[in-house]
Every structure is written in C-alpha cells, then in structure tokens.
C-alpha cells in the first residue's frame, strides 16, 4: 500500500476532526468500525484547559455550533473512514473491522487496526464502546447497567492478556 496515500488519508481524517472541535485541544482519540453495510465512528478529545475528555456529540450541547455544519463534518468523517477501509480492500490487504487513531496538537499520531469479527452476537457496539472508553480513556460508566457490563468484562478478562 502506498504509504504517502495512507498518510494523506490519516491527515484528512484528523483535519475533519479538528474542524469539529470548537476549542483549543491537546489530544484526540478516534475509534471507528467499518464492515459491509455498517459503520460507526466516534471520538473524544481533551481540551487544553481540562483533564476530562469531551465526547464528540456533546460538542453540540456545550458550544454554539451550527448543527447542520457539524453533521456534514460527521458525514465527511464517516466517508473518510470508509475510504480508508476501501483502500485496504482494493490494495489486497485484509480489510480491518476496527480503526483507532490517536493524535495530539503537535501532529504526533498513532493508528491501529483491529480484525475481530464484529458480527459475534456476544458483543455489541455499546459494549465495545464501553470497553474501549475504559481501556483508552479510563472512563467508568455512571449508569448501573453500563457499569455492570464493564465489571463483567473486567471479571472475564482477569488473568487473560489481550
């Protein structure tokens, strides 16, 4: 695969996220899932003035942003991830199912791909998101139902390595 093209695709994803963030920020954690017919993407960012991450959909409630423009950027972000996924497929690489990119305000970034079968009925997107939020951001759900899911995951993974 052409590394220059891959770098440009990462840059486009990051630039779209940056356009969605209406304040100074330090670091972004983006997670996406892409499969035939299914796509989900979300991100958190750490504002410059806070140690608490902000969930991307909370931006609309926290700031006076144009919702229509925000939704257009959200669609563009989804399109960029789908293009990245298609690029892998078209270049003969195994298409990934999960993608994560972490980047900071200095331009440093790290991209990771996952290849788990997401059609497994034992886990759903809600559970995967809770686990991801805990593993990468240290977030513990406030709601009892979600907290029980996370506790069950932690109990099941005790002693196991990823």
Automatic annotation (TrEMBL):
**InterPro entries, per this entry?**
YezG-like, YezG-like_sf
Name by which UniProt lists this protein? Antitoxin YezG family protein
**Annotated organism of origin:** Polycladomyces zharkentensis
């Amino acid at each position: 695969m052409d590394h220059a093209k891959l770098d440009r695709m990462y840059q486009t994803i990051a630039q779209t996220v940056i356009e969605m963030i209406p304040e100074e920020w330090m670091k972004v954690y983006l997670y996406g899932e892409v499969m035939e017919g299914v796509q989900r993407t979300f991100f958190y960012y750490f504002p410059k003035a806070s140690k608490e991450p902000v969930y991307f959909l909370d931006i609309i409630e926290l700031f006076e942003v144009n919702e229509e423009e925000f939704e257009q950027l959200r669609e563009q972000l989804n399109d960029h991830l789908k293009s990245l996924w298609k690029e892998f497929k078209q270049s003969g690489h195994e298409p990934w199912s999960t993608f994560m990119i972490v980047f900071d305000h200095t331009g440093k970034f790290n991209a990771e791909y996952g290849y788990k079968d997401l059609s497994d009925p034992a886990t759903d997107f809600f559970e995967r998101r809770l686990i991801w939020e805990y593993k990468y951001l240290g977030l513990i759900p406030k709601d009892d139902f979600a907290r029980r899911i996370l506790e069950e995951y932690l109990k099941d993974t005790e002693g196991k390595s990823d």
